């Protein structure tokens, strides 16, 4: 009887330990997703973004076109831009000439349609009227004015020299842009930017983990080089004496 009681107690003890171990393992399994989520939240993203790229771009139809959600529309837009670039740049067709030819063709079609409608008992072409809501026009003008004032404030802050790093970065960017302008005209530059906007985001979305990892290393190295440049060059630029002379 005593042996039977001991075996029964051992079974109960083993069951208790088994339940506790299974509960601890389930708790650890429950903790794994949260731990994985914490690690995922700590992953470096380019420009410090926290939202997906589609939401950053507005999550609308323009974002769908840029990220090739609909390949037919995106391909049509890119193909149309390429056709215009070939027309103006490769075939040396001029914008004013193209507009005039389109207007001539449109007027000729409307003229033939209007005169032919009398013979075939058909209604003449109906040219719609453009009506712009006054409220919407005022909203667009107000928003445009706010954006222009913000841009002017940014230019004023950069030109004041308060942030020397930003000032030097803008100067370097403008200098690089001037070099690019010497190599190609405005139309070609606009087309290159358009193509980049339709190719870089979709490739970045596809390989964002690799790009973010590489950019993190690159930005860290750039910051190190900037610290060295600041210690050797920028910190030696006299600032205080100039201000004192102005006060005197």
Helices, strands, pairings?
Blueprint lengths: L1 H40 L11 H4 L4 H6 L4 H20 L4 H22 L17 H27 L3 H20 L2 H21 L1 H25 L7 H8 L1
Helix pairs in contact: 4-8
Please give the largest β-sheet.
none
Order of helices and strands: HHHHHHHHHH
Percent of sequence in beta strands = under 5%
Distance between the termini: 108 Å
Q: Residue-averaged pLDDT, rounded?
A: 77
Broad shape: elongated
User: Strand tally, please?
Assistant: 0
What does this protein look like?
- By secondary structure, the protein is an all-alpha fold.
- The chain contains ten helices and no strands.
- The chain has helices at 2-41, 53-56, 61-66, 71-90, 95-116, 134-160, 164-183, 186-206, 208-232, 240-247.
- The chain is elongated, with a radius of gyration of 33 Å.
- The protein starts with a helix and ends with a helix.
- The relative contact order is 0.07.
What's the short version?
Helices cover 78% and strands 0% of the residues. With 248 residues, the protein is mostly helical. The longest helix has 40 residues, at 2-41.
């Amino acid at each position: 009887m005593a042996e039977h009681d001991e075996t029964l107690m051992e079974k109960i003890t083993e069951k208790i330990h088994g339940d506790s171990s299974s509960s601890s393992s389930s708790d650890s399994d429950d903790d794994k997703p949260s731990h994985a989520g914490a690690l995922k939240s700590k992953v470096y993203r380019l420009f410090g973004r926290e939202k997906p790229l589609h939401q950053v771009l507005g999550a609308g139809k323009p974002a769908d076109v840029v990220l090739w959600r609909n390949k037919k529309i995106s391909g049509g837009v890119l193909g149309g831009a390429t056709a215009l670039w070939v027309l103006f740049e490769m075939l040396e067709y001029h914008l004013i000439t193209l507009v005039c030819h389109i207007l001539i063709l449109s007027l000729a079609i409307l003229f033939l349609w209007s005169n032919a409608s009398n013979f075939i008992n058909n209604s003449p072409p109906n040219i719609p009227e453009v009506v712009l809501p006054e409220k919407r026009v005022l909203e667009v003008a107000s928003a445009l004015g706010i954006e222009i004032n913000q841009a002017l404030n940014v230019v004023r802050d950069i030109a004041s020299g308060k942030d020397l790093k930003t000032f030097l970065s803008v100067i370097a960017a403008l200098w690089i842009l001037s070099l690019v302008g010497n190599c190609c005209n405005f139309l070609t530059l606009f087309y290159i930017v358009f193509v980049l906007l339709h190719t870089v985001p979709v490739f970045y979305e596809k390989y964002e983990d690799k790009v973010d990892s590489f950019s993190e290393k690159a930005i860290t190295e750039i910051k190190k080089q900037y610290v060295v440049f600041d210690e050797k060059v920028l910190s030696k630029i006299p600032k205080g004496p100039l201000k004192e002379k102005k006060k005197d």
